[in-house]
């Protein structure tokens, strides 16, 4: 759902928002603004919970429009942590607008987990290892990897602690540098994600 922005709520709804905010600067007399209005509404619904969408009438709120140097409309500004990180001037097709939004939004854990699983499935096809047959355990480990990737930037092995030394920490990105040795010795890696394929 779109938020009607005015000078009184702009600070709270946009600048203090804990998620990114797309602000549509528009006016009632602007034909291109009216043309993209349904697209903006669809974006608000599709990205609900991940992106806040607000509309600001430039005629009724000239101070904010001037502050952000809005010279033509429609202009869309995307704010993150109170700062403008993207400016789009003119009526863009929905898919072009979505591609700009996707770059900005943090990936959801579910999407990160899928991406990690795809990469590790490819790895298991090319290596003598496979996922642990215990699907619940694999799912838990993949969730841990996704959480670490989202929070720390890398899918560090869940059974190891990053040191802060980039060179050393690279060795513990899953599949870590130690899993082959562990599987050779115990038939399973330390975290339990990979096991040896039967011959």
What topology emerges from the helices and strands here?
Layout: E1 2-5, H1 7-15, E2 21-26, H2 31-46, E3 52-57, H3 62-67, E4 75-80, E5 83-89, H4 94-104, H5 109-126, E6 129-131, H6 135-152, H7 166-170, H8 179-186, E7 194-196
Parallel strand pairs: 1-3, 2-3
Antiparallel strand pairs: 2-4, 4-5, 6-7
Overview of the structural elements:
It is a single chain. Strand 4 (75-80) and strand 5 (83-89) form a beta hairpin. Helix 5 (109-126) packs across helix 6. The protein is 46% helix and 18% strand. With 199 residues, it is an alpha/beta fold. The strands form two sheets. A five-stranded mixed β-sheet has the order 1-3-2-4-5, with helices on both faces. The protein has two domains: 2-104, Glutaredoxin (3-Layer(aba) Sandwich); 109-196, Ferredoxin Thioredoxin Reductase, CATH 3.90.460.10. It has eight helices and seven strands. The mean pLDDT is 92. It has helices at residues 7-15, 31-46, 62-67, 94-104, 109-126, 135-152, 166-170, 179-186; strands at 2-5, 21-26, 52-57, 75-80, 83-89, 129-131, 194-196.
Concise synopsis of the structure shown:
By secondary structure, the protein is an alpha/beta fold. The protein contains eight helices and seven strands, in the order E-H-E-H-E-H-E-E-H-H-E-H-H-H-E. The strands form two sheets. A five-stranded mixed beta sheet has the order 1-3-2-4-5, with helices on both faces. Strands 6-7 form a two-stranded antiparallel sheet.
């Amino acid at each position: 759902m779109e938020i009607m922005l005015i000078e009184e709520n702009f600070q709270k709804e946009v600048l203090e928002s804990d998620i990114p905010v797309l602000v549509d600067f528009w006016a009632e007399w602007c034909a291109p603004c009216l043309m993209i209005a349904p697209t903006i509404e669809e974006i608000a619904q599709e990205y609900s919970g991940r992106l806040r969408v607000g509309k600001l009438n430039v005629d009724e709120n000239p101070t904010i429009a001037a502050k952000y140097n809005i010279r033509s409309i429609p202009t869309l500004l995307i704010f993150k942590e109170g700062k403008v990180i993207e400016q789009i001037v003119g009526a863009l097709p929905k898919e072009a607008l979505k591609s700009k939004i996707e770059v900005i939004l943090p990936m959801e854990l579910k999407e990160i987990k899928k991406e990690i699983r795809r990469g590790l499935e490819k790895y298991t096809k090319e290596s003598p290892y496979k996922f642990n047959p215990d699907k619940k355990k694999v799912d838990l480990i993949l969730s841990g990897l996704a959480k670490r990737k989202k929070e720390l930037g890398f899918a560090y092995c869940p059974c190891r602690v990053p040191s802060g030394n980039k060179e050393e920490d690279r060795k513990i990105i899953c599949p870590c540098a130690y899993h082959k040795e562990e599987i050779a010795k115990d038939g399973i890696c330390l975290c339990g994600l990979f096991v040896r394929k039967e011959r």
